[in-house]
Structures are given as C-alpha cells and as structure tokens.
User: Fold these one by one.
Assistant:
Number 1:
Amino acid sequence: MKVDDPPSTGLPCSSNFEVRQTAFAGRAVFASHAIPAGTTIWRSEDLSLSVLLREYRREVCGYCFRYENGRDLALRDKNVGYAFCSGMCRAGWMKDNGEVGVQAWSAVEKWTKGRKNEDSDMVEPDLPRPTPKEIIQGWEGVAGQAVLIQIAREGEREKPRRDGEEGGVRKQHKRALQKALQQPIAADVMSFCVNGILWRHHHAAEWNRVLALAIDETPYHSADELQTFINTYLTLLAILPFPLLYLVTPETMFTLSSRDSHNSFGIRSLEDEGSEFFGFGCWPGASYFNHSCNPNVEKQRQGRAWTFTAGRDIARGDELCITYLSGEERKLGREERMARLRNWGFDCNCDRCAMA
C-alpha cells in the first residue's frame, strides 16, 4: 500500500495567529499580536471527514446537527437514511452531496437495511494496536479480491460475454463481489468512509488540507477495527456508483483514518454542556489548536462550523490553546482528565496539570 505524500501547503492562514512547529507537541498555533478577551480568533467551516452515528440519525439534523432533545425530526429521507430540521438544511445537504452523493447514500442505505449492525459492539480495552507493518499487510492481503470485484463491476457496464471469453466476468469475479456484500456491517465506519470519499470527490483542490494534518501511523485500535475498515473498503468497491470508484483505494481509506485519528472534534448537544455525543468530524483549519486544561481560547460549535474566541487577554507570541474535554470533563481531577486525554495519544503537561 502506497501512503499519500504530505503536501507543502494546506495550513490555515490568519492575521491573528501563525502555525509553528514545537519541540514536543508537534505544530501549534501562536498569537501574531495581542488579542483582547472576547475577540473572535478563527471560524472553521471546512468540515471534511465526519460521521453522524446511526442511532441518532432520526433525532439529529444530517446537515446542521440540530438536536430536538430526543424527538424524531419530521423531515426524513428514507432513501439516504438522514433526517433534517428544515427544508433549507435538506437542500444544503443535497447540494453538498450532489447527484453522485445521493446515489452513494442510497446504495449504502439499501445495503444497510435489514442487516445486523456491529458498530455498537464493545471494544476490549488494552488490546494491542496493529503495527504499521501489520496494517500494510492487512491492506495488501485483499488486493487480489479487490481486483476481482473491480472486474465484476466493470462487467456491469459491458455487454455480457460468454464465460471464458477474454475480458468477460467469470464466476470467480462474481464470487468475490458476493463475498464483499456478505461482510458484517459496520454502518458508522461506512458512513465515515463515504463522507470522506465524497468530500474528496467534490473538493479535490482542497484535499491538501487533509493531507497536511498530523498523521497517526497506527490509527486502528485493534486488529478487529483494522479488519472492519478493510471489509468496508471491499463493500464500497461493490456498491458505490462508478464515478466514485477511482477514490475507493487502500490509500484513501488509510488517509481518512490516519488524519482523523488525532484531529477530530466531537459533535455534541449544545444546550447541556455536550452530554449527548452524536458523532465526530474533522475541520482541518481548526485542527492546529493544541489542548490545555486551562485554555485561553474557547470553542463553540454553531451548526456545521466552529468559532474560536479568546477566553481572556492573550499576549503576542502566546500559544493559543483550547480544551479537548467536554463540559463536565473539565471539572475532573488530574488523573481522570489524563485518562480521557490519552484517547488523543498524549499525556497532558499544561500548567494546570503541572500544578496538581
């Protein structure tokens, strides 16, 4: 498997801050000038990789993520599997996804209905993560089946030929296709991958924003999770519309996982300190703010966008930090905060943790 090369551009550009490399925390955001409390520092609208958990699809708007406190939304599109809070949001979703996106979501929803969903299965803690070598071996191990599926799909567009003729679809190709369609379902993983593929298809010139993000070389929490993504790849080869198949590759699938891993934001309810977790998304322009348990920048989701505001006066050259913790988590003790922050792959060394 060839890994996509990182680009030389793609960093956010603002008069309020600059992105610099740090000695211990990768890249970080630093104030370009003194910033008074209450100043809007950055607004990020570039949602690229995301998933709205299937169990919330009836209650949360598929476009603006508005939550009706557990009530089903009246405007539902059963063909694509999403509900919307208004006709405007539905129109926005349709515009963003385009005709090929509607075809893709319809194909996924048709395949998903009536199948046992394994997304909710609990993952055992402390399982070893697959190593980079094991990840490459996993993806390369299905290369042969992927070729057979691709030949079978191409046969759908060609005039049928007699079995055995050069270029014709044979039983082995059909078997590979059927095997992919019989894989266990992981609806949320599939939704995440489809969202990423569609975003890349519609925003090819902006893909460098995703590639510029910090890479997690071991993004899968277990061998089972790696296999789930591999199975999803094969299934998408079998069901997505033809205009998207050029992006259904191990490289794309791994890039989605490796960039999302440490760069995503939770999509939560807005009225109750984020007690309801609906899903997650990656806004590349917002992904360079590092964490502090005593942040000087406050973040707030407004529909599909994030706004970042100075929580107190900030001096020129200070690092601009947000918190990765939700409302109630911010009140936890040091050890409990540290345990949650390890989900992002680091031990916190902020001033608040150092003084505890």
Number 2:
Amino acid sequence: MFKEQQLKNINKKEEFFVIEKNIEGNRERILDLRHKIHKNPELGFHEFKTAKLIKNELERLGVEILAEGVGKTGIIGQIKGNENGKTIALRADIDALPIQEKTNLPYASKNKGIMHACGHDTHTAALLGAAGALKNMAKQNKLNGNVLFIFQPNEERSDPKRKSGAVQMIKALEKTGLRDKINAFFMLHVCSEMERGKILLPKDMLCGSSSSFTLKLEAPGGHASESWKLPNIEKILSRIETKLDDRFGFKGPQEEQPKIILEPGLHKTDSQAVNTLSERGEVSWTLRILLPGMEFKPTRTKIIQEFKKIILNEVEPWQKKGAKWSVDYNPGTRPVAFRDPKLVELGEEVAKDVLGNDLEISRQPILGGEDFSYYPEPFVGKSMAPKKEIPGLAIMVGGANPKKGIPFVGHHQPNFRIDEESIIDMAKIYAEFSRQYLEK
C-alpha cells in the first residue's frame, strides 16, 4: 500500500512537470498573445478583435468551441478527457477599461482612451496557455475529466438589467445544458498591489459585494436670493450625503479595513452661475459589503431602506414646491464566497506546487467587486428556475516586482503594470489546478 501511494505521488509530480514543460516551451507565444491583447484593448461587449484572437488560438490548439458571440463576444471552449470524469470550468475576463495608458511599454495600448488597466489581458493569455498544456495532457490520455474554458466579456460593468458578462455566460451555459455538468468553477486574478510569488487566498471569502445608487433630483430652479423658499438642489444633495456618511461612513483607523463602505462618487448639477439654483442634480454612491451570505442580504436590505428614508426626509418638505426625486439602483455583484473548503485546500496546494513551498499567502479579503460571484449561485435570473449551487474558487496572484522596477500600483490606474512572469505562474496554476481537481 505504501509503495502504491508513493507511485501515485511520483506520477502526480511527473504530470505536473509535463504541464510545466509545455507552458515553459510556449512561454514566448503566451506572452505574445498578451502583448497583442494589451495593444488592442476593447471595452465590454465590444471585444471583437480579442474574441477573434481567442478563437483562432483555441482552434490552433484543437480545443472544441462550444459557443461564441455570447453577449456578442464571449467564447466557451472545451477539452474532453477520459470518460466518466468530472468537469471543471475555468474563467478569464477579456474586457478593458476607459483609461488612457501612460506606461510607455513597447506594447502599450494603441486605442486612445482604452487600456487593460486591471490585468484581464493577462488572465486571457494565461488561460490560453493553460488550454495548450491541458490539451497536451488529453492527447496523452492523462486528463481524467473535462475542462471548460470561459472567456467572458464585460466584467467591469453591470447594470440594473443584469447585463454583466457573467450573467450572459451563465445564460449560455444554461441554454446549452453545460451548467448542469459543471462540478466546480475556478478563476485567477492578477494583483498589482501584491508582490509576485505571493497569493491572496482567504478561507471563506475573496472579495465583497459591489452595488451602486444614483439619486436624481429635479426642481424649478430660481434665484439664490430666494433659496429660503425654493428647493436648493445643491443643499439637499449635501445634506443627504452628510447624513449617509454619518450613518454609514467608516469611523475606524485608516489601517483597518471596514466591512461596509458607502461612498459618494459622481456629483453633478446644472447650475451655470453662483446665484442660480439648479434645476437638475444627481449624485452616485458605491456600496461595498464584506460579509458572508447569511449576513450580506439583510445588511444590504437594511442599508437600502435607510438610504431611501434619509432621501425622503430631505426631499419631502420641498415636494409641494416642485422637488422630484428618483433612485436608480444597481444590485451589482454579491461577495465572492467559498463554499467548499476542499477547493481552498487544493488551491493552496497547487499554488505551492507552482510557486514553491515557502509561498506567502494573505488571508485578508478585499472590498473589490467581481462578477465571478454569479457563477456558483443557484439562481441566475427571474426568467429561470432555481438551479444547483456549484462550488467555486478564486485566487489573486501577485504581479508586482519592485526588484525589476515594477512597483506596487493600484488597479484601474493609467500606469498599471505587472511582472509578466506572473502570467506564466497563472497559466501553470490554471492547468495544474484543473489536473489535480479532476484527478482527485
């Protein structure tokens, strides 16, 4: 029995070396794919050139394409391994951001005002690299199950009509009957604020929810000298912002990460002069909640109720004077929570295989939002019946490297950069996680 177990461990290591050798052998191609995507960034649901590149590479590798044009640009591919095995779905997002790049990289964006400032180009290239390695395993009859490759558009934006790329991909998985066959979802996200060789892998939750509100006000306007008897939109908005900050603003030390954030962002009025009262105004808030499912829903519901109550208390006294208000609410994404501790254990084990046993792991979840949260959910839309809950795991992989002159830089910034070695790291983790999950 001991010799049998030893043999299994040796085979496992040998198979990992097969994956590693394949990815290292295709290093230049993987990085070239990243450069092409980075140079030609496209916004959500408009990633047509990116989708064409992905399709061409999957066809070159011999990966079966099950769906394309999902949400206009999404692609689903499949590699079939040995029969009767499980199915794992790997997801990479492919969209860019409306940001003007300032990196001066040789492959910097050539599309004015659009940039891959969150690393989605690296995710796409890494997953294509993993597809090559897993296809090689399948050809050798060493892949004990099936792998789905989900190249998702439009992760950066979701709206009240739930048009996020994740929702579109899930609908396609439902329509084709693929979702019922999936046993687990897995995704990676590069992190430019963490050093290469480190990962972020909390035990229960990677990141918080992301919702938003936009309050719109209308009033007759008028002269500022009569503001004592007319609705003053600027003043009403300021009072609402102050009361919401008093109620939900974080009061702890700057070093301590809050569980709830409600922060105002866009603030616009149409007044053209200091002595003129606005006729229209609006302000938007982002709401982030870092709480597990049992606490998340009631907390969000309570905040929404108090939000509307504060607005009503400030606007109601002026309604007889012509003040009107409306709120656009975008429920956005839920927290990315891990429901299967075995997946977390496997993620840690695989990361150590790829990055070394001295791997540093951060367990602190973040407040950033991710629409990957939709994939494991048992309910995907009003028009569909409740479906099964599917385990999912997400890992953030360090991409900064100050020693190589690649500093810690926040995402969504014009000077966003990462050490490209992290792309190779992610390709190996994608492939090896899939192999070990299907093996076990």
Number 3:
Amino acid sequence: MTEETSNEPVLSDDEKSALLEGMSTGEVEVHSSDGPSYASVAEFELGPRSRIVTNSYPRLQSLNRQFAGRISKQIEVLLNAECDVTSTGIETCTYSEIGERSNGLSLLLEFSPQPLNGSALINLDATLVEVMVETFYGGSGNEPLHQDADFFTPGEIIVAMLFGRSVISTIAEVWKPMTDLSPELLGSHLSSGVIDSVDGGDPVIAAEFELTIGDKKQLFHIIWPLATVASLIPVFEGQRRERDVAEDTRWEKSIRARVVESIVKISSNVGKTHMTLGEIADLTPGDVITIGNPEKSTVFARQVPILEGRFGVHQGRHAIEATQWISADSQVESATN
C-alpha cells in the first residue's frame, strides 16, 4: 500500500451523504452484482429483558407440575368451565423485574405461607382477571377492557380472591410431603402500588403458569421471595437433609421432658360378672347387679393397658396396688390365650 492510498478516506463525501440520507429516510442503497437495490429499515423496539429460566430447582419444578395438575380441577369447579393449567418455568430475578415486564394493570394477591416467615404473592394480569370474572358469571369472555384501567372492581377482586384461596390450598396439599404449610390470604394489591412485605430489589423465585379457560390462554405467577423460602432452598435443589446427631439428642431430651409432664386419663375395671341376655332384658331402674369382690384389676392410660394390680382399700378409699407393668409381649400373649 502506498502512502498516497493510505491517506485516502474510507468513505467519500458522496458516500457519507448517501448513507446519512438513507438513514434519515429509511431507505439504504445496497449494491450487488445484480445492480443497486433498496432495502427498508424497520424500527427496532427494545423489549423487556429476556427471561432467565433456571433448572437449579428441580424439586420445585416437580412440585409446580403437581400443582398445575391438581389446581386445574379446582378452577373448573370454581368457574364451571373447562380449564387447564400448565407449569411453564421458573425464573430467578428481582421483584422489580417482574413488574417491568407487565404491559398494564395486574392484581397481586398476598398470602402468608405459615410457618415460613414473610409473604408470597400471586400475580394475576388484568386480562386474566376479566376472563375469570366473565366465565364465573356464565359469560364467554369479551375483549380486554382493562388496557387503560387503573383499578379493579369489588366483584373482580372477590372472584380473584376465590381463585387465590384455591391456589394456596393446593400449594399446601402439594407441599405437604416437604413441609406442613398453613397459608392464609392477607389481601390484594394493585401492581402500581407499594407492598410493604416486598421491596423492588428483593430477589424472588417466580413460578410461571399458563391458564387456559376455554379457548383463552393467560399467564399467572406465584412469586416466592428468597427470604421467605430460604430454609427450603436446599430442598428445592434436591439436596437431602443430613441428620444432626446433636440436634436429635436435644429433641429426644425435650420430648422426654414433655412426656413426663403430660397429663393422661387413668381408668380401671372395677369388676366382672356374668348375666344372660334374658336377665339383662329384664333389668329395670333400681335393680342391683352383684359383682364379686375383684382380686385383680387392670389400669388403663387412654384405653391402653399399662399395669396390673390388686384391688383393695387404702386410707378409706378404693385403690389398686400395682403389681407389674404390662409389656407389649404380655399383651400379645394374653390376646393369644
């Protein structure tokens, strides 16, 4: 390359002008072996951030699939219409990122997954709420009306809360093998409002589900703040909890101490006698049933035999003198005899 050619500009003034004109008008001249051709420039819109679907919680994904299968039947009963729910993925992000993807108004149902600390949310798009309300009242659903709305009617909130109760009861049923939840709905919030229990920067696990009502498909999310389900993260990841010998020993001591202090009902048989069915049928109020002086008596704790003893009188009161404890082996032996 000569010094003269190296100083030449990459683009000539005419080429710069043509490029600027094409950019401003939306037409760019493209030269090829077939001659010049023109291509239009389409507008590019920066959409919401791409979803990050994680596979790091296989146990939670399995629970979500079970949840989807069971909640479908409950929603069918609630709406009296054919419904189907499918688990479409899990996403780990911040709470604010969930809100940024919403195209409009949505309703947030807050619930307390006791005994877990904190709250969780059910995110329902306004279109989904409208479809559920229309179906609940026997309609087939109309075109979305909430595109520019900034509130939900009391009737819409009531139907959404009924849906929310079905959701949390199914969660408690599906999660029972993992943890015993007693969830409770706390209330509803607009997506544009402020929720005290969740901050925009809080990390959350968003479980996405697709709800099909008739021929209409909508998405809803169950949002679990990481702080709420922190104790269950190892279980979500499929890890087994190792037994802690020291902790087991503490539990054993605690249980033993409480068992000793437990109050149980003690009872015993006073005596036995034999009568015919005819004699029993002839009994009238005031008749006396003669029972021989019992020599032995069995003591029961909540109807479980625990010891045998001799029946007698102690300090002017009827009492039983314990002679031996009844073991499981002796119960089996007496039953066989």
